[in-house]
Design goal:
Largest sheet: none
Helix content: over 70%
Shape: elongated
Transmembrane segments: 6-24, 33-52
Number of strands: 0
Keywords: Membrane, Transmembrane, Transmembrane helix
Strand content: under 5%
Distance between the termini: 13 Å
């Protein structure tokens, strides 16, 4: 269970940063530049955790 805390917290921080970029800063180019690498990283993390802890 402890192994799930850090990825969950980092995902929450990532989503909060995306909300900040999209709603407060309104910088669509920066938002898109952060969105896709972050989604790839999170999906690789999910796959790794799935195969290791299943």
């Amino acid at each position: 269970m402890v192994y799930l805390i850090l990825p969950a917290l980092l995902t929450v921080v990532y989503i909060a940063y995306l909300v900040y970029l999209f709603f407060w800063k309104r910088d669509i180019m920066q938002f898109r530049a952060v969105l896709y690498p972050g989604l790839v990283f999170i999906s690789m993390w999910v796959l790794l955790y799935y195969f290791v802890f299943r």
